[in-house]
């Protein structure tokens, strides 16, 4: 076992030296920037509340943005079916004579949910659209709000067939946070729920996430001390009812633009904060589903501004991307924690050009980290993408170095599971091993293993948090050996 660990460590160091890095950064395998749009107008993957403009499920990656190539802003969509290596064509999701802006996307299996705000009705209203075939085709626009005020900056999250949306709304004279849900995958929707009630203040920039039946919402709020602070609210029953507001930040300077992500019972919040004389990225976590919260953690430390964080999590690995002015122009930076936010690695600069790069959005699928932003290097704003194919460790472990007498694939445990399960296998000969998960239609959901391994017994975990309940299959291929087994996820 020790020999295997030493060998892996040596390989990582050699990779790092080859890539021109250092031992602190040897996990970084960031590939080249990919330009996703190419037109003479403006393309923005941006929302005031840092809502995700990128989402992924298995090897399918989904990106949304708003684009002025049609004379007014419309919502556009693009996808990759091979984890960001190649990309399809742009798909226009809206078509009207008014502006459609600030989309947010979430995915559960092959069902994609997109929300945005739209002024086709004479004022800004929240609209929704979905695809049930992983982005191949799209349903009709659905209007979710109907009032004389402005409804804007929606954020969407999904688990199974329950879709959750939060946004800011001034139907009550000042902006409050509102919430709406669908319990049938976006086919029908419940009533609007007013989550905040500040008659003389503003609650804005809502960000929403969900794990199982626990829904988490964060926002910026002006009710305290004459400056914005970060607030939090949760529902423990799939959005049927909500608890009290919880104030997360306490200082005499603005704390704004929060982003929230959750894995299991650990909730992660990142925001930008002016307490240090310039905007820096701060982080806070709860390990008990939002019941109590730890101390603030300062993630950046420079003399320039760091802003607009986006946070994503997979198991115990937390990813944060933001825009940063430390280099004399706005560049995209990234940081991660591999132990649930207890400690953090170094800042990694993802862009390097003489123009500005803004508003990153980060998502994870399998071992791949996906980042999307908009960039002015082409003389107008275009959408760019970058990926790290090994940036999200999926935790394959060698549990025995004894050489088995034959190949074998064990039944996952527990089975049924919710949402994680462990898969183990034995290798009698060294070689390339591929272990993948598929849905009942035979579509690839996630690649768990794709590497050369020595003989021994291994195990890895599968996280189905973003998938719907049902039957899934996992298949191993190693040399001439191939075997498939069935597993059941019940949420």
Q: CATH top level of the largest domain?
A: Mainly Beta
The CATH topology of the largest domain: Neuraminidase
Give the uncertain stretches in residue-range form: 1-27
Shape: globular
Give the overall pLDDT as a whole number: 89
Q: In words, what does this structure look like?
A:
It is a single chain. The protein is mainly beta. It has three domains: 1-29; 31-388, Neuraminidase (6 Propeller); 395-489, Sandwich (Immunoglobulin-like). It has one helix and 37 strands. It has one helix spanning 2-18; strands at residues 34-35, 43-44, 54-57, 60-67, 74-80, 91-92, 100-108, 111-118, 125-131, 142-143, 151-159, 162-169, 176-182, 193-194, 203-211, 214-224, 227-235, 246-247, 255-263, 266-273, 280-286, 297-298, 306-314, 317-324, 331-337, 348-349, 357-365, 368-375, 382-388, 397-400, 408-409, 420-427, 431-438, 444-453, 456-463, 470-478, 481-489. Strands 2, 3, 4, 5 and 6 form a five-stranded antiparallel beta sheet that branches. A four-stranded antiparallel beta sheet has the order 1-29-28-27, with no helix packed on it. Strands 7-8-9-10 form a four-stranded antiparallel beta sheet, with no helix packed on it. It is globular, with a radius of gyration of 22 Å. The relative contact order is 0.12.
